[in-house]
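[SOLVED] Need 3D model of a two-part complex

Original post:
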Amino acid sequence: MKKLIYIALLSVPLVTMGQTLDRTKAPAPAKAPVIQVANPVQFTLPNGLKVFVVKNTKLPRVTATLALDIDGFAEGDIAGVADMSGQLMKRGTATKSKAVLDEAVEFLGGNLSTSSQSASASSLKSNFPKLFELMAEVVLHPAFNSDELEKVRKQSLSGLESSKDDANAISGNVLKKLVYGATHPFGEMTTSATVKKVTVSDVKTFYAKYWKPNIGFLVFVGDIEPATAKLLAEKNFGSWQKGEAVAQNFPKPAVLNKPIVAIVDRPASVQSVVAIASTVEIGPGSPNVIPGSVMNNILGGGFSGRLFANLREKHGFTYGAYSSLNPNRQIGFFQAGASVRNEKTDSSIQELLSEINIIRNEKVGDTELSRMKNYLAGGFARSLENPATIANFALNVARYKLPADYYQNYLTNLAAVNSTKVQEVAKLILNPSQMYIVVVGNAKQIAKGLEKYGTVKYYDIEGNETAAPQEPKVTINFTPQALMDKVVQGYGGKEAIEKIKDLELKGTASLMGQNLDVAQTRVLPGNATMTMSMGGMVMSKQALVNGNYSVAQQGQEAPITPEVKESLEESTFIVPEMMYLQKGYQLKIVGAEKVEGKDAIDVEITTPSGKVSHRFYDAITYLLLKTSVTQEVPGRGSVTQQQFYKSYKNMEGLNVASEQVLDLGQIKLNINFTSIKLNQGLKATDLK
Amino acid sequence: MQKRMLVALGFLFSVSGLVAQSHTIQYEKYTLPNGLKVILHEDHSAPVVAVTALYHVGSKNEDTARTGFAHFFEHLLFEGSDNIKRGEFDKYITNAGGALNANTSQDRTFYYELLPSNQLELGLWLESERMMHAKIEQIGVNTQREVVKEEKRERMDNRPYGSFLTEMLRRSFKVHPYRWAPIGSMDHLNAAKLEEFINFYKTFYVPNNCVLSIAGDFKVAELKQKIEAYFGPIAKGTKPIPRPTIQEPALGGEVRDIIYDNIQLSGVFQAYRAPKQGGDEYYAFNVLSTILSGGESSRMTKTIVDKKQQAAFAGSQPFFNEDAGLFITLALANMGVAPATLEQSIDSVVNDLKTNLVGEREFQKVKNQITTDLVASNGTMAGIAESLANYEVYFGDANLINTELEKYNKVTREDVLKVAQKYLNKENRVVLYYLPKEKTATK
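Solution:
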């Protein structure tokens, strides 16, 4: 065995201390350290498991990692099974429950983790043999217990649920599905539906199919002799039976010849998530990897990249703009993007494409190039502090069949990158005509004009192509008064409405899994209360009872402004449309819009105190479908809150929405009224 | 979602409980005539170096009408110096392939640069420029004030549970400056005049209030000469350095409150008043904390998260400082679990520590975990440099990096029972419920 890492420091010329230091400029760097990355000890067990040992005695601890040589999984309609089986693996073995196993690992002061294609254990040297035995037990005899599967499923589902509201997550999912294709292992999407389908038997099948020693790499890093590691590997993994590895021949993703602008409509968005991406033929070890990394970092690698300088510093479209380039032996991936203000979506795409074209068409400057090379060289040197880096190098060399001195020569090859090469690689990697431009945002506000970048298509949040949000076909040829009359008719008519003396709605809402109790009560004329509580604790209450106004939010009384008074008064009406024009509200029919697939008439309403909101009425039934109000929030721009009214039920001639959805962008509150009571004979004094 | 939450929680604690240890760390320590303490650890195992400067000034040294100053200086001192143009400080490091940052606690401010070893001198130049003649100008003050406001918005106002430390501290302490968090008051920063910033700089950012701790790939003899050249000419501070002497009286009864925040899951946070760092009780508390939340088999995780499935996360955190400490427990409720139910579960786990002696095997397990953690904290040059500086400043003994394990080994099961009984009592704690803020609906 050679020395693991041998770092020869050339003698550094000393600053002569007698002379005065020139403080006015930065000191020049000393000569770069010569870095030698020698190979770790390697051997292969009879069952095909390849073992690497990187001895490093700096600290008395050892880490072992078992990684399977798998590029991706074809999971189909049970997508998620790979991740779930990875999590399940360390939740119990054939002879140890989760609790027993956790205690055993931690008694050794150890850590043990597993994933869909790896397992890792680390502890102090003294406890390592025992911990390694537990790691082998987990890998070779996992229990795949059904109760534990349900716990894992619960976590997955709640994670997926919250990512439905996350524009970045939507962008990432749709992008991968489009760029790689829905059936490509890199493009498959895990959804609630697929996660719900996963059974214990699926997990076992997955495990049996992929976990084979002959596609495994076992890497020891730390204070351990290679001979000891060999004994441990043989003793614990020697009995593991080899098997046939699953072929990793993935279909080649289709290449576009004209860009596609893929819009995912998200009406609540105040920012568009823009991502421009394509696959790239670049695998580990390709001569283009190092120049490609230089090129990508100049273009969009962090705060010093061109995208950041342009979209953030120069134009202020965004908080950050970046690009990334990931070589992969199946197929590589390039992406550039940013989250930008709605009204700057078009301009941002313009600037992103413009920077991509500039780095293709013009040579980078010498200063910019040498700075980036210094940056990458420094990062490489610093990464060597972690012994796991050396192990990863060895793993990559073996896995991707790189030359043995690949990392040894990394700095030399980095130094050799010149501006001609950067441009050459940019032309090879960045092909604007083959890119998908994925935009997750408010289609109505941002879609116009995007057709100049490519063929515009629309997708849902799971990446299925949908029809473009349709322009409603509604003829509006009546006055506000006439519309209000129709609305009143839609609710059941003036006569039916006027018969109602009290109305009480009670129900529950779920706010990201928290259960809230919601109650709305009106006693006519002029009294109303609305409360939301959780576990008996009142979280908010608004009331107008016998002329007394009160609003308590988050445990504190809010001041009663004229606007608040107005809104409380409005809430005492069963159908406020009956009073708008009488009470001096300004109504303006602005146009038509689709609300959840229905054609709706958009009415702008200005209250006597000047507050503006919109109400959307069904163009056929004239029932209220949605209200919406946009407010300026200091520091966050304009924020739109929407409330949807659904599932109307006819109660004694009155149509009442039994479901309300409050959409605040990131937060959605679904209120279901399970009890709706009319004319119970309530008095104002009954309202608390 | 869960992962993100845990990351977010990690940010809440800028000072971690367990500190460094391993097999012997050699170092050399000396003081320059201007009072600058220097600690050097030579290690050639990788071509890297960590240059760090710890100033013994934190939010507790601030004037009650000027809170947030120390943290503000964490930003301001990146603005430049007589020889470093505005905004170029970090560019020098980035262009050298290095990384840099700083952080501020209630007790100290810590600046560091991580560099390839051939760029060590660059680190010396930047740190000595910062100490010798940093630029304290109106334009820089104005710029950084906006940055700090943005940081507050991002890290406290917009981050779930981000206000927790501030809210907890102001209820836990009534008179000691620990009652405010390092972020301080934006109003105070707005009101401060340039002279006040200059005065603060001249008082605290002086060689005699600093430890320069450097670890990595260098030769000590050569480095000492360079340090002398860069830092020797910096004048010693002449102003007295204010340190609070005020004693915080007992809490005198349980304090409970509700905070409404932009969160999805309710949270229960409890803080017990606890002794200051460094004593026997401090070590017993760290052992106790590991019993409660060190790993999957710890009591809070096993009982509350896994068995009862009441919480997405449950844990504890010793928050011990120079003058006083807090012992914090926290949990984020799962969907549909009432905070009161969750609090009962936490209390029942905590109360068990007050009534029953920890079992021998469990106690051994926790000691094993602590030993592993202490070793791991010496895994990087940055970790070693910071630990050496911390131990020197807080305990006057950098060598604790080699001997602290003994202090943990001395802790007995009875010691854990004793601190639990003495401190983990209702009248000695603040309890905060974090509940989801209910947004105003359109009518």
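Edit: The first strand of chain A starts at residue 5 and ends at 8.
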